[in-house]
User: Fold these one by one.
Assistant:
Number 1:
Amino acid sequence: MTTRKNALVTGANKGIGRETVRRLAALDYKVWLGARDAERGETAAQALHDEGLDVEWLALDVASDDSVAAAAKTVAARISSLEVLVNNAGIAPGYVEALGPDGRYQRPPSQEDIADMKATYDVNVFGPVRVTRAFLPLLLASPAARIVMVSSYLGSLARASGSQSPNVMGYGSSKTALNAVTLAFARELAPHGIMVNAAAPGYTATDLNAHRGGRTVQQAAEIIVRLTTLEPGGPTGGYFDENGPLPW
């Protein structure tokens, strides 16, 4: 067992997740790079390791109870505590196909596919619940663990009520639900010194949106890393972007 600070980032073989791994490892964390695809996960972890960073791939499919349980067992055999958990893995099936020539989302909620919505919730909502529950013993073993749920501006009901916000029912509502999950865990874990917050990285150029986003992964990772390194007495049960608190 080791006393070094440890972090886990889910869905981290590319995009915002991979950049978050890089940033945490640069802060001298041992980082477990969670990814369900072995080839992509090992390749990403090796590339970061070649940069001199302590990064290791962890087989982790957040939509699978068995995979999450096995991942937790693997990590628990290697470390005594987990200081940071970033629930980053997320999907938006059908989103890219619904983008018009101008890049705007054009599919009405009444035409969204229910099967896509179920898959979205399984990863974006139940995934963070599965992972947080499975790794909770390791998080509780740390004197000041931090959990970050990677949400979205589309998760804000206040923003969704405005006419300028894209009307993306499946993905958006999954992030609204994730915000509620954030609050629930924050209330439970506050007495244990664990801070749980939701981060909105902004519309970032990733595979999720066919790289239509206007922000870089470096910009997106800023608020995530900031929330993972909060000092004792900082906020918990909040929803933030890099400029501060967001309206629920």
Number 2:
Amino acid sequence: MKFSCIVPAFNEAARIENVVRTLLLCPDLHEIVVVDDCSTDATWEVLNRLEHPKLRKIRHEKNSGKTRAVFTGIRESSGEYVVTIDSDLLNLKPEHVRDLIAPIRLGTADVTLSIRENSLGIYKLLRNDFVSGERAVPRAVLAEEGYYLSGPGFGLEVKMNEKIIAAKYRVKSVRFPGVITPRKSDKYGFVAGTVADMKMVGEILSVLPAWRLGYQLWYFYRQNAYLNNFPTK
């Protein structure tokens, strides 16, 4: 099994180096493709300081949104499985990525999703963060590029969920203890962060109606359980 890791990034100069260095310590990853979506800060300069045979760096000339950044990475990758990792994670460790991949290697799941330390309480209660940016999926989930690129920049994860449900893949959640993703208000300030959050929610709701998002959450809950107590060999 080959696992290709795709990391979309936009204005993450303060965090991207630690994320990438952590991923480079993960032997389960066949390759790591980082796509800088035309950042206006020093993200690209930070990335250019990093060199490794498994690492590929790509920069968009125009800001195109997370979904297009991910698909730029997919086109440049070759693994049978795709692992997506958000570029702003704090406290990510190699064992988190190992645990995300292990259920697929062991044949106990087809798809895995992370639950971060600061995932919403409702997601923890229902044992799945159905919009998690950290997930491992068969490449087939992302085969229809046009389906994904036809919508707004956000909405990638919920569109993936529709394909996962249609294929009846087994989905399991994996705890990411200690890992947090900064709130947009922490990164951009309260006003700008709130506007960014509202834009993200609006774009997701433009992809699917609220009842369908609820169905996704319920569907994953029905079959899900935390999976951090499995053997890793």
Number 3:
Amino acid sequence: MGSRIHKRESVFHLIYRFVFITFGASLAAISIELFLVPNNIIDGGIIGVSLILDFLLSDKIPFVNFGTLVVLLNIPFMYSGYKQIGKTFFISSAFAIVALAVIESFLHHVEPFVTESILATVFGGLTLGVGVGLVIRHGGSLDGTEILGILLTKKLPFSVGEFVMFINIFIFGWAAFVFGIQEAMYSVMTYYIAFKTIDTVIQGMDETKAVIIVSDVYSEVSDAILQRLGRGTTMLKGRGGFTDNEKEVIYVVVTRLEVTKLKAIVSDIDENAFITIMSTQETKGARFKSAIH
């Protein structure tokens, strides 16, 4: 019985994941075909290269279009990353890329939403960012350059972000020759907006802060945080580097809006408390979420 329930949940999560990957790929296709392409604006990475080649070759070589190019150009990267990144990621990414290509092809004859470059840049970047972010959040990717970056940065003294930025400098430079400097500048803006939107989609809107508090009256501070803020705390063992005395260190996670109240609570009890506040990438846990809502 238990195994059957587990199987049913797995199928549900699989369907859930691919529905959102399809939705994300659809948003990316809408951005490309109805915002960016009509205004000669591109994104970075493989999508950007595919858009430039489509512009240069589609009228000269039969059957060459964005959909075909984005699939073909991504194949080597997907193949290279198959063993390193995993089968699930490979399948999810391949599905997302094919979905992007197919959906984009159906939008060829749809009238563009805007022909004003700045509007296309802002809303195209936002739509693209949400689409790509949804694909990444649900286990896939639309851009093989990031996969290449993951593989190469294991051997090179660069981060994945630095590698992708380096590649995109050449792509946007190429765009300046093909479309013009102004269009290339709009493309850089689009990429930046999409990049920031992707971060928001992946990390969520509820920005959280991890707080570490060192106080001699740790018990009173911990109780006050629980009673007045409704947040549970975790006690960590610490040792003073100067005094060599053992200390109890309070660890608590709060929302961005609760930081000011937390500092006031701690200050009321111990003005000499040492507080460190750090941004967190993601927070999971039923207790934390239920406390927010």
